[in-house]
Amino acid sequence: MSTPCAHLENVANDPVPQGGCGECLALGDTWVHLRLCVECGNIGCCNDSKNQHAMKHAKAHGHPVVRSAEPGEWWAWCYEDDQGVRLAAPQGS
Questions:
Q1: What is the distance, to the nearest Å, from the Cα of residue 32 to the centroid of all Cα atoms in its chain?
Q2: Side by side, which strands form the sheet with 34-37?
Q3: In which band, very low, low, confident or very high, does the pLDDT at 12 lie, cut at 50, 70 and 90?
Q4: Superfamily for 18-86?
Q5: In the chain, what are the domain boundaries?
Q6: 65, exposed or middle or buried, with CB in 10 Å at 0-12, 13-18, 19+?
Q7: What angle do CA 27, 30, 33 make, to 5 degrees?
Q8: Rounded CA gap, 73 and 30, in Å?
Q9: Cα angle at 83 between 9 and 23, to 5 degrees?
Q10: Would you place residue 1 in the very low, low, confident or very high pLDDT band (cuts 50, 70, 90)?
Q11: 27-61: b or e for each residue (b if 16 or more CB lie within 10 Å)?
């Protein structure tokens, strides 16, 4: 069994800001799904998207953990350790 990722121990499950991938919007491009950087709040597109801005942001800024920014999805992922965790859905969700 692998060691749990320490980056994922205390991921807040705060509301996700509205919007899209800022870099894709600036390019006039589209995305598949959105990811929220838990460290700075940047919203980027997922790895299934053409531009993969969320992962590029993580590598460029040293922010390894993202949360899904998709409605009804409650999970986080650490790019550095290639591990994920389910988050408890906030009450009322």
A1: 13
A2: 43-45, 34-37, 65-68, 75-78, 83-86
A3: confident
A4: Zinc/RING finger domain, C3HC4 (zinc finger) (3.30.40.10)
A5: 18-86
A6: buried
A7: 130
A8: 20
A9: 95
A10: very low
A11: eeeebeebbbbbeeebbbbbeebebbbbbebbeee
**Dist CA 6 CA 3 (whole Å):** 9
Mean pLDDT of 51-73: 97
Q: Which amino acid is at 79?
A: Y
Are 34 and 57 contacting, i.e. CB atoms less than 8 angstroms apart?
A: no
- What is the three-class DSSP state of 61? helix
What residue type is assigned to position 78 of the chain? C
